[in-house]
Write a structure and sequence with these properties.
93 residues, mainly alpha, elongated
């Protein structure tokens, strides 16, 4: 479910994926793992299933890039060129 607008942060739209409960459950676990370090199973990263490590590494890369992109847009703007000189009001005589 890739979209070009609206699902920018993760490359897909979680709102449109709500019909798939397992997908949303995995998405939540990945998000919690990225914020808190909680894993799929109890134990360290080396004790996790291989598929989870693969998916988590993909997710963290996307999340990190999206956070960087968001911060860059806040600082640099959205790339649209704006006039550098302020408009001066004109008086009608």
């Amino acid at each position: 479910m890739y979209v070009t607008k609206g699902g920018e942060l993760y490359g897909f739209c979680p709102g449109k994926a709500t019909w798939d409960g397992q997908t949303m459950h995995l998405f939540r676990i990945l998000h919690v793992a990225s914020e808190t370090g909680a894993m799929w199973d109890d134990g360290s990263l080396s004790e996790q299933p291989e598929w989870f490590i693969d998916v988590l590494s993909w997710f963290l890369t996307k999340l990190d890039f999206a956070k960087f992109q968001t911060k860059a847009r806040m600082v640099l703007g959205d790339g649209k060129k704006e006039s550098s000189s302020p408009k001066t009001p004109t008086r009608k005589k």
